[in-house]
Prior knowledge:
Helices cover 29% and strands 21% of the residues. Helix 3 runs parallel beside helix 5. The protein folds into two domains: 212 residues, P-loop containing nucleotide triphosphate hydrolases (Rossmann fold), CATH 3.40.50.300; 104 residues, no CATH class. It contains nine helices and 13 strands. Strands 1, 2, 3, 4, 5, 6, 7, 8, 9, 10, 11, 12 and 13 form a 13-stranded mixed β-sheet that branches.
Amino acid sequence: MQFLERAWYQKAAWLILLWPVAKLFQLLSSIRKYFQTSGSQTHRPSVPVVVIGNITVGGTGKTPLIIKLGNMLREAGLNPGVISRGYLGKAPHYPFCVDSDSDVDEVGDEALLIARKLNCPVVIDPDRKRALAKICSDFKCDVVLSDDGLQHYPLPRDIEIAVVDGERLFGNEMCLPAGPLREPVSRLKSVQHVVVNGPIERETSHPALQHASEMTVEPTFLINILSGEKKPFRGAPFNMGTTIHGITGIGNPDRFFGLLAKLPYKLQQHDFPDHHPFTEQDFEGLAKDERQPIVMTEKDAVKCQSFARPNFWYLEIKAVLPEEFQQQLLEEIRQLCEQYKN
């Protein structure tokens, strides 16, 4: 898969051989969408639903955006809930309620991280419509955020937010398997908001991003997994002469490694596939000197707590959004909440 992803974003010429298969995939997706949306709006939930997703495979920055929006809603006096597929989790039953003490093997890394960061109701189910019914019946939520689900068309939604990786954009702009797109770029015309993870050069950016909002991801602290010790992400948080072992199992590792490269240390990169189920064996032979830190993303850290060593750290980040976008989205959600009450 990593080989294919590199080909997509390097726009390898041989991928044109897969173009007929991509067109078939696009046709089948359109047919699936038609049948899934037929009657999907007949049973409306009791609260508005905001779907945060993307049109490409791989990571784009949905999780930090969901955490940012969840905190924004809580600060505004609303009670958000989150539904998710619980990707790669194997829960004992579905729908399943996630809390901060849930087993990552049961609920998946993203759902567990969201539950810990937001301290709000989180329900997982591959059938997101069923997860929505569960969270509405069991919890007093004012609004539900859906982690992904842009293509899960049976799920009712009031607002769609598409997240785009500002570095990789849409690759060669072909649909699977010839390219990284789940749906054509034209799908962005039908969503209410497009958020680009990274800087937008308006004059040279893709036409589909002319009215997009820019999100930046800022590193805040390096946090020790075992002790909880915090070191600010500035200056030289570790001793000079340190070698940092950067470990990641995310969709776009270059963004994470780029942050670590800003520190004044030698960096050794260890890249694993997206959502890699880390085990203790993955770290054998790495940084035997405990003065040499192993640094990972917070999403990866939730999978490593049970076998973490004293030199295991994770990088805490926060998403930053334009104030204008936040106020506009908050007003849209408040209006929807009033409509649902009436």
